[in-house]
Amino acid sequence: MRSAWSRVITAVLGLGSLLAAPVAPAGSSAVISPGPPVDAPGYHVRYLVPPNPLQQTDGMALDGQGGVWVTQALSNRVVHLDLATSAVTRLADETDAEPLRVPDDIALGPDGNLYVTAMLDRAVVRMAKDGTGRKVVGSNLGDGTSLTNGIAFNQQGRLFATDLSFADPTHPGGLWEVDPAGVKPPVPILRNLPTPEGFGFGPDGLAYVPEMFAGRIDVIDVDARTVRPLVDGFGYLVALKVDGGGRLVTMETDTGKLWRVDRTTGQRTFVAQGPPGLDNLVVAADGTIYTTNFAQGNVWRVDEARQVMVPLLPESSLTLPFSLSEAPDGALVVGDFSAVTRLGGGGPTPVNRLSRLLVDGGASSTPTKQLQLLTPGAVQIGSAVYYSDFLPPDGRIFRRDLATGRRELVAKGFGFPWMVREGPPGHLLVSDQALGAVFDVDVATGGVTPVVQGLRSPSGLAFDAASGVLYVSDTGGGRVLGVNLSMPAPAPFLVATGLAGPEGVALDRDGRVLVVEGDTGRLFRVDSGGHRRAVASGLPTRTVGIGLPLLNYSSDVLVRRDGAIVVSGDADGSLIELTRSTDGG
Fold first, then answer.
1. Exposed/middle/buried for 286, CB within 10 Å: 0-12, 13-18, 19+?
2. What would the CATH number be for the domain defined by 28-51+318-580?
3. Are the C-beta atoms of residues 147 and 120 closer than 8 Å to each other?
4. Does the N-terminal or the C-terminal CB of the chain have fewer CB atoms within 10 Å?
5. Helix, strand, coil content of the chain in percent (nearest 5)
6. CATH (one of 2.120.10.30, 1.20.910.10, 2.40.440.10, 3.30.70.790) for 60-311
7. Between the CA atoms of 308, 313, 315 and 318, what dihedral angle is there, to the nearest 10 degrees?
8. What are the tens digits of pLDDT across the range 206-263?
9. Where in the chain is the domain with CATH 2.120.10.30?
10. Is 0.85 topped by the overall pTM?
């Protein structure tokens, strides 16, 4: 089923490189506070999950004045965080005239400028501390398949960057020297490095580079262009910095463990335990360590005395919630793009992240572990969760047993599998944005059959088991279609048209279609004649893409068994619940 599209994505995919940049909603008086204004006549509106103040975080650089710059690759964003007040200021965003496409790592140069690796552009960009004056100083890093990643200056003010491939652990990466002035082209220092991540220079002038999938730290002499291993036996190492005492500080993303390593002997000492999904770190002048997390966002302060990581901002359960479904016990199952998350119902919401980007549940990591990347769709059937996962060049559907944690492949060969819904008994329904189709998947055999084709970036799905009718939002076509799967030769029929980016679809308890119009932040109810009536407006559903073809980043809508409506806000990581008020509506 795969097309040439998947090969394009393979060439550009890096950690988070397919995602959208959420647009901040305009501030005004709100029905629910704090947050965007939501107008839903006849409904009580509340947050089930509040907005995430820092959705998904990556690279870090200290400003030397009590703050830190943070990149948000999934949002094409760079922000400044005041470590004392927690104030967040945006320096770069997708809506800028000169957007940074998937900014991953960041460094403060001796000239007072910021230097950022733009993964999707395979480039290094220089900009002022306020985000202005951007200039590409290095381009075409890597071989066309790998992407720019880590960045660091040495003591002489020379700038270096790494490239790697997250999609293929066997694909070689490398280390480059980049001219900060942007006059000379980048110079390859070494190739054939196994996934070199964020790195640092020691007081000896040597580069200490964590090799992610190899689980080791290499030592590189950038002048002699030699490399030697220092220590191995780690999990997935994603970043390394050198503290004031010349010791290496590194961390494993799959286990959440932070280590201090002697750079001469390789002896390691456990420092702290954090949540899996760690991405980068900095070491402040007073020795305090701060970390980021690409799977759940936030910035974390390391409490070495207690060997834990403490979030600086209020914790939130979600980052980019793209799909919603209700489990048999009333819990919500969320395809959060960088994770599959189960939120328990009633009272305080317990969070169970069943799987995370580049993190596989189970024992300590090994090179033979099956990687997981992007997971936009998930549904629980019985005691198992089925979810979509895109690991180039193959889109797959997995099943995870909630009792044992065991993960099994159900089906593969998709382009970009998006929404996953329960279909007829023993079957799943899967929308595929890349292939423009909806597929029926036999969970017993893995057989895949197209049921609707010729769509443009389909996202939302709803299935009415009583009638056998499947509803799908043809997002790029501005319409919602239906198809009766119980018919001998199912043919699509029009449900609604003229919509601005229709995304999530659901059926209310009266059998009427609900559709999220993502581009406008509105929720509509559609009657049998195709006429629609607004249910809510001001929802945080608008996201801006990063320029890859056929991809649309979607919010979803769910009607729970008690009749409550839940909308996922992919613009801010929230879940918003609408329940009927007693005074009509």
1. exposed
2. 2.120.10.30
3. yes
4. C
5. 5, 45, 50
6. 2.120.10.30
7. -120
8. 999 999 989 999 999 999 999 999 999 999 999 999 999 999 999 999 899 999 999 9
9. 28-51+318-580, 60-311
10. yes
